[in-house]
## 1
Amino acid sequence: MYSYRKITDDLVYVGVDDRRLPLFENLFPLERGVSYNSYLLLDEKTALLDTCDHTVAHQFLENVEHALGGRALDYLVIHHMEPDHCGSFEDIYRRYPDLCIISNMKTFQMLEQFFSFAIPEKNRIVVKDGEEFSFGKHSFKFLFAPMVHWPEVMFSYDITDSILFSADAFGVFGCNNGNIFASEQNYKDKDFVDDARRYYANIVGKYGPQTQAALKKTGACSIKMICPLHGPIWDEDLSFILEKYDLWSKYQPEDKAVVIYYNSVYGNTESIINHFALELGTRGVRNIRIYDVSKTEVSYLIGEAFRASHLVFGATTYNNGLFPKMENLLTDMKNLSVQNRTVSIIENGTWAPQSAKLLKEILDGMKGITYLASPLTVKSSTVNREALEELADRIAKDVLS
Ligand code: FEO
């Protein structure tokens, strides 16, 4: 059964929710699924704005066919070549072989890499950054956004209706469930924002400077609505998501808050961390979050690193190195360019503690890391209580200042 929904008089949502995919990019858990958004412009000419993942192609084709209402499909605008959006390109192209594809040169190069057939010159319109194109009543301006988060990514701005089509930017994990507009979802709720941040941090997080450049470019446009390729269409209070993106892409914390990451083999490090958290709580630190890195999947831990100002690592020494899950977290943080955080380390080692030194080696390769104190060493379950309390004092004063 087809499913589509009007956005404006001549713009239709033809995307598909995917509740079956367990791991986005075969990596990130999806608790609420994901939507592959696609939009159909019904102007004097018709234009499909991106396609969908190949796994939902059947539903997607049905949506497009019904939304077209018997009209031909004249254009396909490709904003992003990643297969969650271009996976059904061939299905669309085979069904509408006369359509013209509008995109930039990099996209056409990637099309040839992903698909084995040649696209004739007459079916290609190669656009440049800032170039405009009219579909009739609607004029679009193409704004390149390289490395947000692939090199060919471009946005387009519908000058006529002040709508920004933003590729992956401003996307969120989670299905739309019929509520395709942000105004129909509780987008300020913690769960939603956590999923928005987790999406940004893990998918785009590495490319903060490029995201800042794209924000500056789109800042010159008067925008009434943002249509991303995942999650809801932003149709109200746009500053909410724009400000979040500005903070995240500058690697500035959202919350002055403490997140504690620990690993514990037999529970001794965990016991010290629980004690330490109570010391922080006693000193007035609120909303502390503690994560056992063995239990919580790393994309959630990364999301939290993009949120909080103060990060504490409680790390055991393991095989004379870091515990693998802890090492994975730190490596991922470094790869995703986490910056500007205040960090404290509590290491544990029964005979030759190494984890503080190894953690610092990774953290020292990241920008803007501030240490409030020297690492604290636990030997098995033995710790200097005064030093632990002094560390709690320092963190509490800094967070509460
Ligand atoms: Fe939603 Fe970069 O693909």
Note: Residues 173 and 299 are 12 Å apart (CA to CA).
## 2
Amino acid sequence: MKILVTGGAGFIGSNFIHYWLQTHPQDDVVCFDALTYAGNLENLKDIENNPKYLFVKGDITDRDAVFDAVKQVDVVVHFAAETHVDRSIMDPGIFIRTNIMGTQHILDAVKEYGKRLHHISTDEVFGSLKPEDPPFTEKTAYDPQSPYSASKAASDHLVRAYVNTYGIQATISNCSNNYGPYMFPEKIIPLFISNLMEGKKVPVYGDGHQVRDWIFVDDHSRGVDLILQKGTMGETYCLGGGNEVKNIDLTKKLVDLLGKDDASIEFVKDRPGHDRRYAIDYAKAKETLGWEPLVTFEDGLLQTVEWYKANQEWVARCKSGDYQTYYDEWYENQLAMKH
Ligand code: NAD
Ligand code: DAU
């Protein structure tokens, strides 16, 4: 089988490619990625000479490039997206172009050539849970709250519309917060690990009592694999870690693992429209695919911290250049507006 992985040079995409080449060595994998600030060929350096792997630099907003790439494979796993909520608040336009228009090109191409698609989405499309609410399921109504989650919700609706209208062969997964190696140091876990390694403070938004459901990235990859093997066309699968953690508790764990103390924690102005709680009920994936997360938060977090300690030059390169401009605009503003 030949599989096209869009966004394969990013965090989850690069972990997925490593996972796929290890678990399906007979398959050919093509990584299609525009190499935005979040895409990094260093993430795939160890496999660049693998004869079963090919990199194609391409943008999903370029319709012809998408058609050329999709035509040559059997299956498309679509990770490519703008993914950081804070950036979507600063500049929604690129989220709409990439996440919605780009996905339309993927859909038109799989429709044209009759290919199988798996669309990667997020639990953020469901909005925010109250403390007493049950976790999200595949039946939860969409209620996206940020420009990022609204753009992902739109892309999910388009996938379902193409299944319903044109009968394309597609599935969707909505996954909770991933963590692990190669995560760009703008999201909370890698940002906080790298700040602590650099002797900087960590900016906790608001009261720090927001909850996220953390899943180790390899568990996500295995879920996508099982959906490709056993999933029913047109169906959606919710994948989660079964692991709800308050941001402040996560922060304290990281501070501890990095050998620092609470003086490293700085409470800053809240993210506008900040979703309070996400949690996933993955019963459908468990019952129909035999999937459940296997990596404990303790093991996964330790493994992640060790990876960032061993890859400080990778982190430094990610945090240079354009990132610094973004950091200055966003985080310095947050730090300046403490409670
Ligand atoms: P990421 O930001 O680390 O990587 C995104 C990748 O997409 C990068 O390699 C980037 O270069 C590429 N890309 C961006 N725009 C592109 C374009 N126009 N054309 C081609 N490539 C482009 O993101 P991630 O965290 O790995 O997320 C991957 C997918 O998983 C996204 O669809 C995201 O919505 C979804 N998701 C992420 C999480 C999470 O916790 N990170 C959870 C659930 C779902
Ligand atoms: O739920 C899945 C989603 O998880 C994915 O779809 C997104 O692509 C991914 O970015 C992630 O979104 P979040 O907004 O939950 O992730 P982030 O790491 O940005 O923030 C996690 C929590 O930590 C959130 O409550 C905001 C808070 N936070 C974040 C940063 C960057 C802080 O308190 N301080 C920070 O500096």
Note: The radius of gyration is 19 Å.
## 3
Amino acid sequence: MTGDIAKVNAATKALEFVKDGMLLGLGTGSTAAHFVRLLGERVRQGLRVKGVPTSEATRNLAEQVGVPLLEISQIDHLDLDIDGADELDPQFRLIKGGGGALLREKIVAAASGQMIVIADESKAVDVLGAFPLPVEVVRFGFALTQKRIAEALRATGCAGNEVTLRTSGKSNEPVITDGGNYILDAHAKRIAQPEALGAALKNIAGVVEHGLFLGLSRTAIIGKAKGAEVRTL
Ligand code: 5RP
């Protein structure tokens, strides 16, 4: 519950960065959902913004709370992207994709003038990798891709190299992303060289995108039980 209050506090602080007329990237996950709900309240009070959602879940929520939306095909630049993270290190390198939305999240972050990460304190780590790194892969040949990803983990000095297919439900069906792909979770344990691992993963046939967000954010809002701290690089 404390974590949830901290997430609300981070999301509330992020509203201070939103200005009238902005085009916004709307992240995915529970922290980003708090932000979208709060943004909906501001819109009902007269704030004029438009958002591009990073998942179908966020699209549904934004529609429910009345945030006007655009399709990504209608824009070529966003002013500000607000999104959560599974881990962030002191250089604001991120692991994202716990909610499976990493592909759209990365496209939206890359199209934004600024990305602000909103997270509770538990997400701030010294070294990335305790949270399994999500990698979105095409379904065709995914078992081969899984092996190549394990090799990339080994080659770049990660502490672990187990790679698992993300499943859900009682029948353990593979999770299918909004893009129609699978998610492989790479249990790196400790990612010694995030840039090298990111480059190695991008080089594997079958990998659509990985959840390392490198050099995309220079501002993080860390929510706490009371209030939130704005950190900048
Ligand atoms: C979804 C994400 C989320 O931002 C990440 O999983 C954090 O989620 P939460 O705010 O629920 O802790 O990357 O793909």
Note: Residues 27-32, 83-86, 96-102, 105 surround ribulose-5-phosphate (CB under 6 Å).
## 4
Amino acid sequence: MNALKQAIQESAKKYHKEFISVRNHLHSHPELSYQEFETSEFIQQQLKQFGIPFEVKATTGVVGLIKGKNPDKRIIALRADIDALPIKEANDVPYKSLKDGLMHACGHDVHTTCLLGAAKILNELKNEWEGTVKLIFQPGEEKNPGGASLLIKEGVLENPTPDAIFGLHVHPQLEVGRYSFRPGQVMASADEIYITIKGKGGHAAAPQLTADTILIASNLVVALQQIISRNNDPLSPSVLSITSFQGGFTTNVIPSEVKLMGTFRAVDEKWRFRAHDLIRELSTSLVNGMGAELDLHIDVGYPSVFNNTELNAVTRKLAEELVGTENVETTEMRMGAEDFGFYTQHIPGCFFRLGTGNVSKGITSGVHTPNFNIDEKAIENGIAMMAWFGATADFNSAKKH
Ligand code: NI
């Protein structure tokens, strides 16, 4: 295992420059969710060049397979998301986005690069490790319904079914060279709420002849806040935010319609769907009780990300073996969402964070900002870690989710 570790580290170092150029290419050619045509083509070209067989799924997804010795012994999936965001890049770098208004501001260019690098190394070393590695280059992480759900529908977790799946995410708040893991719930589910309140509008001086949709909507915004504080287990994080309130156009007219939008987040899947019922019941009774009609739609988004406990214990040890205990930490839970949660509903998963920040170089901008960037050393680090998990992670004990 020591020889394998050394071989992976040396290869990651040797190919660092090559994969910096890969990342620069991806970074300057960002594409929106489900439109990653050039990106998909580029990934396919790379895999062809490495001699790795692959299939195209969900239009722009690419799924490769590398067989080591005893290919049935263990099957590990490594996943990278490939889509970019509608953000105008503010960085002045030679590899700046060439597409106006589009940017790899969530580091999916880095995720894709790390997986391509790991693929090249795992393929070159395939006589040195046992099992099969499935490479999942996934479209549409940033937008419902989530590329993960489409790939799963197209059978990405079958033939063969992975014992476990790994995904990494860049983390600018973590210094380059560091990694963070967390067993159990690590990210929240995210559902979108759309509410329309319809009533009889009319003259503002004669409210008795109307159903005041502004007043009703105001009451509803306040009332919805008690759902979490009075119904949810206080030890289980959950957030309900009404983020848009639209209605009315002048001072003397009560409008006949008010629209609300918001987001609902949770980490407990049972509570999540109970909360949907509570939101529906409360909204219906309050709005009807105040004389108006309700149109409510909850767009069910990504499930929470659950990191299998045994798998994460094994994984953390492996990470410590590769980079030293002092560089591995426990990550905090976040109420952000990730469609990686779809995979962890089916098989044990480990979603971990890759340190990409560097305070002394001023690399601190958060993801989804126009100044987001990484310390390039993170590319070598991410490649080595993904290759290491692909070659060594063995979780027969963790198979039961
Ligand atoms: Ni992301």
Note: The pocket of nickel (II) ion is lined by residues 106, 108, 141, 169 (CB under 6 Å).
